[in-house]
Each structure stands twice: as structure tokens, then as C-alpha cells.
Amino acid sequence: MSDPYVTRLENYYLDIMSVRDGYEFSISEHNYPYSDRNELEHIGQKARRIDVRCIFTENPTPSPGWNEGVHLKPTYANHYSFIELLKSERSDLTFSHPKYGEIVGKVKTLTIDADDTINTARVSFTFWEHVTESDTTYERFVVAETAEEFREATDTLKDKYTEDEAAAKVSVSWTADATTYINTLNTKLSSITSPANSIIYQINYGTTTPGLILEALNKAIDRIVELYTTGRDAPASFINNLIVEIREFKSTLSGADANHVHIMGAARVAYETAVVLDEDDANRRSLENKEAARSFDAGGNYIKVDQIPAILTVNELDAMLAEVKTFIDEAVQIDRDYRSLQQSAAYLQSYVNSIKLDRERIETVTYNGLISMHLVALNAGMSYQSAERLVKLNPTIVNPNFAYGDLDVVVPAGT
After folding, report:
1. How buried is residue 16: exposed, middle or buried, by Cβ count under 10 Å (0-12/13-18/19+)?
2. Is residue 80 in some structural domain?
3. How far apart (Å, rounded) are the C-alpha atoms in residues 333 and 326?
4. In CATH, what number is assigned to the domain containing residue 21?
5. What is the DSSP code (8-state) at residue 194?
């Protein structure tokens, strides 16, 4: 079976010279007749673009993971069929790289610089990622999947400590440094107690020194999570606070100790992000049920309903995911062996993609004079209880009961 983290495009291994990715956003411009002003609206993110430069030579140096019996090596002779593949293939191609894992998409541009005199070809292409319908299969399992990747990251780091311990032959200095690190971790927010149902208690650390280090490290990060857990009602702020606090904790350490805080912190942030996204999705389903309830009885009397839960907007989802992926990417740059971090980022991206496809589209309706958001909601085919959600979609409107002037109100389309 092919390794999803060995650089490859379809059945060709690639000898990478450089790789970079970029994002483009859809910005809608609203112009006004006989006026010099305009308004810009962010309506989503376009496909991710990855620019790749690779080289085909007579005798390429083998890279870890290459298996000649499985895929073709990037030889000069093979570059002809590689180019023909990119020119002729119409269906999705599979691209894998240590940074991105395995993704599918299409090649948008292709440039070849070949020199027959030295049997060398430099090939540059732009790969556009394709988000498929199958990505939504992660939606239901995102918490369980990121939890498994958190445990995998713990095991990977524990194995590395075990190797270091064996290399040091359990020297006095190595043991002393490990003990000092454990003591430092144990003093971080020591007055806070981790809840009994925390994910850190689902892991068997053992009684060896590497196990004790990992146990102390995960407990320290867990106490950071517990410090800010009361802020879960504001998911974006909660995740931001976790990242800021973990960065601050990392800054108090140095070398490998600091890097390991970042790596395990990134694994835990990915898990916590999955949890808040799952909670937000549950709130959305609750919101739909409550908004669908009757607002008035047969006599015209208002029927009081439970509080309408707040949900993340599409822009808030994008901003939070971007911050989390940046934090994870920094951890991956520290040590690429942690494929679990890359996989967690892929799960989160797939989950957010599925949410964005399901979230409502919006349109703008103009009102003049005195108006309430409750009436706007009814005019838009929504329920009376939807007024609070309209206020969130229109931050310039503070009071749902009263708004005055020439108003452009954003409402869900097609309701």
C-alpha cells in the first residue's frame, strides 16, 4: 500500500525542489448607482492552490519511502510519460506530500524546462485541491478521529523519549534532565485539577521515565484546557486562549522541551477544536428545532421558548480553522514524523467543509423607517424566534426590537 506522506503524484514519485500553497477568497463587490462608495462581502474560500517544482534526472537520489516496485522513480526517461499524464488526464489526480498528506484535485498549469544534453527536466505545476462529497463522511466521527490522533501523537513522542533514553544508556545527566522537566510540567497551574473524564486518562503511560514525562506533559496541557473551559460558549475565543497560553508556556522552556510542549499542545488543540465544532453543530440542530416551533397560539398570544443557542458563522469557522491549522503546521515543521497532526488537520478541514456546504446562503433586503428584526424574520419566512440570529448576522443592529433608517438587512436566502 502506498505511503500517503511520501511525495508522489499518481504513480510517480517526485523529487521536490520547492513547494508552496496559497489561498484565494471570493470577495463580492456591491456598487451603488451615482455614488463613489462600495461594499465588499467575504463569501467564502476558493480551492487551495499548491505550486510544485520538481526535477527529473538520469539517476535520482532515492528518498525514504520510495518503492520502485510500487511507483515510478523521477528519472529523465519517465518525465515524458509524466507530462503526458498531466496533459491528458481529465479525472481527479492524487497528490501526496509530508505536509498535506494525501489529497485529490487537478493540475491547473504545467511548465517544463528540459535539457536533453544533461538528461534533466525541471517540471513546475499548480495543483488545485478538490473537496469531494466523501469528505463529509468525517462529519460524524471528527471527535473520535482527532482523539485517536492525539493518542497516536502521545505514543510517537513516548517512543522518541524511549530511543533517547536508550541512546543515553540511562546516564545520570539524562535522568536528571528528565526529572527536572517532569517537575517543571507538574508545577504548571498545579492548583487546577483535571476532570476524571479527560482524554488524558484514556492513555496508558506506563511507569518508565518516558511514560512519566508524557503523563506530566499531557496533564500540564490539560490544566490549561481546564483553565479556559468556562469560555466554551464562545468557541473561537476558547480556542484562541488555548493557543496563546500554550505558546506562552512554550516560551518559558527551551530546546526539545519547548518543542514537545508545542507538538502535544497542537494535538490537544486539534481535539478541542473538534469538540467545539461538534458542540456547535449540535447547537445548530437545536436552533433549527426551536425556530421551527410555533411562535403564537390560536389566540395570537406569544409562546415563550427556551433560549436560542448561538452558533458560529461561516466567517468565524474559517478564522478559527485558519488559526488552528497554523498552530498545527508550526508543530509539523518542528518534526514531520508526527503524521497524526497532519491527519487531525485534514479531519478538521473536511468537517468544516461539510458544515459550510450545509450552512445557509444569505441575501440582503432593504428596509426604510422603523422596523423590528422579528418582523424582518417573519417577512423572510423565518420564525419569530429567529430575530436573535438576524442580530448576529447584522452586527450594526444592536436591538432586535427596534431599528430605524435606511437598512440593508442580511437574511438567510431561500427560507
Report:
1. middle
2. yes
3. 11
4. 2.40.30.200
5. -
**pTM, rounded to two decimals:** 0.59
Contact between 354 and 138 under an 8 Å Cβ cutoff? The reply is yes
Asked if 383 contacts 292 with a C-beta cutoff of 8 angstroms, the reply is yes
Cα distance between residue 415 and residue 359, in whole Å: 12
Same domain, 18 and 123: yes
- The one-digit pLDDT tens for each residue of the chain (415 residues) are 455 567 889 889 999 888 888 877 778 887 877 777 778 877 766 778 899 999 999 988 887 778 777 788 899 999 999 999 999 888 888 888 877 777 888 999 999 999 989 999 999 999 998 765 444 333 456 888 888 899 999 999 999 999 888 888 767 788 889 999 999 999 988 888 888 778 888 788 888 999 999 999 999 999 999 999 888 888 889 999 999 999 999 999 999 999 999 999 999 999 999 999 888 887 777 766 666 666 666 676 766 666 666 778 777 888 899 999 999 999 999 988 888 898 898 888 888 877 776 665 667 888 887 788 888 888 877 777 777 777 777 777 877 787 877 788 877 765 5
Instruction: With H, G, I as helix, E, B as strand and everything else as coil, classify residue 137.
Output: helix
CB-based contacts of 211, cutoff 8 Å, min separation 6: 158, 205
Q: Residue 170: inside a domain, yes or no? A: yes
Mark whether 154 and 259 lie in a shared domain: yes
Q: Taken in order 311, 149, 221, 265, is the CA torsion positive or negative?
A: negative
CA distances from 40 to 31, 46, 49, 213, 312 (A): 9, 16, 23, 51, 21
Q: Do 211 and 182 share a structural domain?
A: yes
Total domain count, the chain: 3
Which domain does 178 fall in, by range? 139-358
In a domain, 233, yes or no: yes
SS3 149: helix
Supply the Cα-derived Rg of the chain in whole angstroms.
26
- Cα separation, 310 vs 308, in Å, equals 7
In this structure, are 276 and 208 located in the same domain? yes
Question: Does residue 3 sit within a domain?
Answer: no
Last-in-domain residue among 130, 160, 183: 130
